[in-house]
């Protein structure tokens, strides 16, 4: 379960939070300086993740979901990036950590699966060598043992004839097989935390189903915590335990998958649900898109960043949406000025019928 | 979004006195093989990519026909053959009774204004050095069309139809977001009042919330202007939302075609079952229903050396000896609705409800699930 502590409360909560949450992100700010100005890619984000759980982070492009996780791994460019806040991994602070500390973690305790397997794998080295590399480095085993481990992992992720394929280069693999090889590479050291950034977006739907089920089944075996980043609510609703919806660098809603799909509270989540045709929806009913486009992170709108696209600002009244930024409460909740009663009645009366 | 301006002009189909439902486009035995060159020092043909291999389909006037399949199944090539951006290796494409499969550039000119295309990538399909006005007005200029009030007025009307500010006439594509660019692409396709629009993955490059805007726009255009659509996409839910009839393609062949409901509710081909069961679906309150679970093994085989007989047999759980030898014809099976054709020797039951036992072909998944099942 993800919970949130307000920045001020952090000092008191630090000890218990560190003990039961494996990854704990507190009040994270990530800013890039660019020629056009400062991009506020992540703007005060907090979440917790326990071992063995899967957290789905959903949002459109530019919502800060990928940047958050690159920052966890320290993969941002330190020269142009300003990071504030705390990232505690198993009690270890990662925000100001040296490159050496991070290098020890990457591939061992924390691993990542990228979206585009063709660019994420090096074309110069065989698949087997790339899978074995973190194992050899972190476990200090010989190359031969690394190779054996790579074969074992390839078999686990379902590559046929792993003993032959281990010496293939990435271009000799199909898209689905490359993604499997990347999963093998990520899991080779039994990581405690696996970050999967749009792991199936580039894949066909039948292959996507295979890979998602594989991730789910492997998690049961390895017991890793998984962060699954995606723009597809359908994907996370089938795989994740908890959900975090991000918009313009901030979390706008959190809860368990069940809570969030059954009774979403934030107008942006309503918009996401209404934008997607589903296999069971009524085809005569037009989709209900979110008007407008996502804001520029160079100058996000004041107040609630979603207010220019929101159809419910009148219900709040007093122009609060444009001036006052709503906070995301602890646990299940949404960052919106609508009252709980309003959220419930708007969803049941207006939104749910349209989802058909 | 304003739309009354161009809609006040009579829809193209109605103007020609053509009743909806008449065949607009007839494709039969359409085949496209691309040569694979190799060898040294002299390049010669070493194989062929059988991108599209003998497909038949008809698109009726004012109808939306969906073409769905995974990457490499030949759906985009089909779209390009129909718009004659490619010339077919064999088979015919006839548009309103006229065979255009090998027509010359000159012969094609009048037809081209009636068949337009919307491309997938709104970044590369618009010329960055032209203003929006030039891009949308281009087709009119080439075809020598002078609408009353001038081309510029018409371009402004079109911009308004697709929900853009007509004042943005003089802007360049880079000044627009992805969704807005795709709207420019739609305006360009509408400029000549076409009867058929081939939309090749028109929304897959866009964000979810923007996708819905463009889908609604296309649907509005389709309904109100009576334009027939060939809607090509890999997203089954979007195709279902947009198309009255749907064809499912696999490795250059149509494996199943039929009305929307019969394809999505009563599929017969194992591949259609597998595709539908693979769609990750959000289940809302009161919708919990047991769907069948089918997980195929591996990827789509290469179209350079497609499997003999039925092309799906290498991934099919029902494959038998007959499938390797004999290619199943695309026919109406006993009990299927009219117009619902399936190419399979051993069709599945017409339901998508959960089975007694999941079908898991993937060896890794099967192994992992076997282990987790055992202790219970």
Automatic annotation (TrEMBL), chain A:
Question: Would the keyword ATP-binding turn up in this protein's UniProt record?
Answer: yes
A molecular function annotated in GO for this UniProt entry is:
ATP binding
Instruction: Show the GO cellular component annotation of the record.
Output: plasma membrane
Which is a GO BP term held by this UniProt record? peptide transport
Question: What keywords does the record list, in alphabetical order?
Answer: ATP-binding, Cell membrane, Membrane, Nucleotide-binding, Transport
Query: One Pfam family of this protein, by short name?
Result: ABC_tran
| CDD domains listed in its UniProt record | ABC_NikE_OppD_transporters (cd03257)
Task: Specify whether Nuclease is a keyword of the entry.
Answer: no
User: Per its UniProt record, what NCBIfam families does this chain match?
Assistant: oligo_HPY
Hey, which family's this protein in?
A: Belongs to the ABC transporter superfamily.
Please identify the protein, giving its name as recorded: Peptide/nickel transport system ATP-binding protein
For this protein's source organism, the top of the classification is: Bacteria, Bacillati, Actinomycetota, Actinomycetes, Kitasatosporales
UniProtKB/TrEMBL annotation, chain B:
UniProt keyword ATP-binding, yes or no:
yes
- Keywords assigned: ATP-binding, Nucleotide-binding, Transport
Q: Does the keyword Iron-sulfur apply?
A: no
A single GO molecular function term of this UniProt record: ATP binding
- Pfam family of the protein (one): ABC_tran
PROSITE patterns on file = ABC_TRANSPORTER_1 (PS00211), ABC_TRANSPORTER_2 (PS50893)
Q: Please state every residue range assigned to the domain named ABC transporter.
A: 25-276
Give the UniProt record's GO annotations in the biological process aspect: peptide transport; transmembrane transport
* InterPro entries (UniProt xref): AAA+_ATPase, ABC_transp_ATP-bind, ABC_transporter-like_ATP-bd, ABC_transporter-like_CS, Oligopep_ABC_C, P-loop_NTPase
**Family, similarity comment:** Belongs to the ABC transporter superfamily.
State what protein this is by name: Peptide/nickel transport system ATP-binding protein
Source organism per entry reads Actinacidiphila paucisporea
